[in-house]
Amino acid sequence: MKAIDPANLSKKENYRFLTETIIPRPIAFVTSVSDEGVLNAAPFSYFNVVSADPPILMISIGKRGDSKKDTSRNIVEKGEFVVHITDEKNVQEMNAAAANLPPDESEVERVGLTPVESTAVSVPGLKESQVRFECRLERHLAFDGKEASTDVVFGRIVQYHVDESLMDENGSVQADLLRPIARLGGKDYANLGEIFSIERPK
């Protein structure tokens, strides 16, 4: 077993090791709105649920130099955002929205996505998503590294939206119908693959 001290690695080397080993990762496809009213959309794979009560999710957003990325700045300033689950139906749009555009240009318009009105927040969602979470900013943390800084936002989910075709008679979302996409290392992604069950010990 090889021991590696992350303090001896560069940002790029740490990033590569972490993204190649902490896998698979769900992909948050996030919409946010700037002070100028520009609807931003961007994907983040440093993302997961944190708590069910209250319902909280987390997104980690690396800074670009000393500047916040559009998504992070919008969330911190506006306090609202929408997270969409990336699946086989919207993965190409998600990838296209990762392009580095100036703050006054909307990825939603550039990619041809369809905004839909939200229920509990002012930020629109995306019609191309089968599952989305309307969120209000719960907490923002900042971490400084040797070469870069990172913003971490925690969002309280205030509304769920789910395509009814994904749900069984008990109201459970069926993973094989959602067909989520996971992020791996480098340029690699993965679909759901084989599903198996294990009984938990009592």
TrEMBL record:
Gene3D superfamilies: Electron Transport, Fmn-binding Protein, Chain A. Residues 23-175 form the Flavin reductase like domain. InterPro entries: Flavin_Rdtase-like_dom, Split_barrel_FMN-bd. Its cofactor is FMN. It holds the Pfam family Flavin_Reduct. It comes from the Bacteria. One of its GO terms (molecular function) is oxidoreductase activity, acting on the CH-NH group of donors, NAD or NADP as acceptor. Keywords: Flavoprotein, FMN. Belongs to the flavoredoxin family. This is Flavin reductase like domain-containing protein. It comes from Alteribacter lacisalsi.
